[in-house]
């Protein structure tokens, strides 16, 4: 093939060069270049772009793109800025990322099940007190979103002996998971969940999904894990729920603004665990291998990998 694959990114130089090396190693027969190093002829011929937080003007400067491969699993920023009639977007679906996210969900589920936040508080206060042990089988973990990440997390948590419920847009059948869809299903799932895990993409429908009313519908004494995107949960409503004692703890990996502002109440709230967006980092090598497979399949068949539905937002 004569076309060069464009890498359009707005990430650190170090990250960009690590992605570029991994992509070149995974696709030795392809020409891959960063957008800024491509000449005009290469820009006109480019059929495929691999993007990470791209400047939309750079994407628009490649007039013959057949499709765009995102380096991220979450594409809300890309979709929001996408011009109508723009090329199809394919997002990253990497089994290794699903495994990492499932591991994170299980790790922080154990953190809550074994009352680690309470023991940390007790240690700081010099208090020797044994909390009642709760078996995994006595707790329901309710997962919002049963896609590539949510379904993997549900399977992993079920395997560890927890009861698992899951909610998605379309109705689903998953072994060992009590599944729900639509608004009534969401209310019912929140009512029975001891730990609610957020793994829905950020879209027009899921922005503010967990507002005061829905947080109040969660079982009293439950905890929340948000590994999706900050704006899915209304922060002030969450803080009110924690302050009132309705929710006992929140593990937050994602925020309305990242990095989290130094003056945010979340940093110092005793019932909040703040994580710096680390639940499932993209793995350079496995991501490059998945992208190489997508591109090889496209070169061979002309068929695009399964894409993002722009109107749906994910
Ligand atoms: P995915 O495969 O597209 O799955 C999304 C799931 O959410 C699907 O089950 C979908 O339902 C459901 N959903 C979407 N909109 C909904 C709505 N309005 N109501 C109910 N359910 C809805 O996405 P994924 O790969 O699992 O990733 C999920 C999100 O995780 C990403 O968008 C990203 O924001 C986040 N993420 C975070 C990190 C991190 O490190 N913190 C890393 C990677 C990704 P259907 O099954 O019916 O389509």
Automatic annotation (TrEMBL):
Alphabetized Pfam families for the sequence: 2-Hacid_dh_C (PF02826)
Keyword S-adenosyl-L-methionine annotated: no
UniProt keyword NAD present: yes
Stretches that traverse the bilayer: none
Domain D-isomer specific 2-hydroxyacid dehydrogenase NAD-binding: 111-279
GO MF, any single term: oxidoreductase activity
InterPro entries to which the protein is assigned, alphabetical: D-isomer_DH_NAD-bd, NAD(P)-bd_dom_sf
UniProt keyword list: NAD, Oxidoreductase, Pyruvate
Name the record gives this protein: Glyoxylate/hydroxypyruvate reductase A
Organism whose genome encodes this protein: Paraburkholderia fungorum
């Amino acid at each position: 093939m004569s076309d060069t694959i464009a890498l359009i990114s707005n990430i650190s130089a170090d990250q960009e060069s690590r992605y570029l090396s991994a992509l070149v190693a995974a696709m030795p027969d392809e020409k891959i270049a960063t957008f800024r190093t491509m000449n005009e002829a290469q820009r006109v011929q480019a059929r495929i772009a691999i993007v990470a937080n791209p400047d939309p003007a750079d994407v628009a400067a490649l007039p013959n793109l057949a499709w765009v491969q995102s380096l991220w699993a979450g594409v809300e920023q890309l979709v929001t800025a996408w011009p109508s009639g723009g090329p199809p977007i394919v997002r990253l679906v990497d089994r290794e990322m699903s495994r990492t996210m499932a591991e994170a969900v299980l790790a922080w589920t154990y953190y809550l099940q074994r009352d680690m936040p309470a023991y940390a508080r007790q240690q700081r206060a010099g208090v020797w007190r044994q909390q009642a042990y709760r078996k995994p089988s006595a707790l329901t973990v309710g997962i919002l979103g049963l896609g590539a990440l949510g379904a993997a997390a549900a399977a992993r948590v079920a395997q560890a002996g927890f009861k698992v419920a899951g909610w998605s847009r379309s109705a689903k059948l998953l072994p060992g998971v009590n599944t729900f869809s639509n608004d009534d299903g969401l209310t019912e799932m929140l009512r029975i969940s001891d730990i609610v895990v957020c793994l829905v993409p950020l879209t027009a429908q899921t922005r503010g999904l967990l507002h005061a009313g829905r947080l109040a519908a969660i079982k009293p004494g439950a905890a929340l894990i948000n590994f999706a995107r900050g704006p899915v949960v209304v922060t002030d409503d969450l803080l009110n729920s924690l302050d009132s004692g309705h929710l006992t703890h929140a593990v937050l990996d994602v925020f309305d603004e990242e990095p989290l502002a130094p003056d945010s109440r979340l940093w110092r709230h005793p019932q909040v665990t703040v994580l710096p967006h680390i639940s499932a980092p993209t793995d350079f090598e496995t991501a490059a291998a998945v992208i190489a497979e997508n591109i090889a399949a496209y070169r061979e068949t002309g068929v695009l990998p399964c894409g993002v539905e722009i109107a749906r937002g994910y």
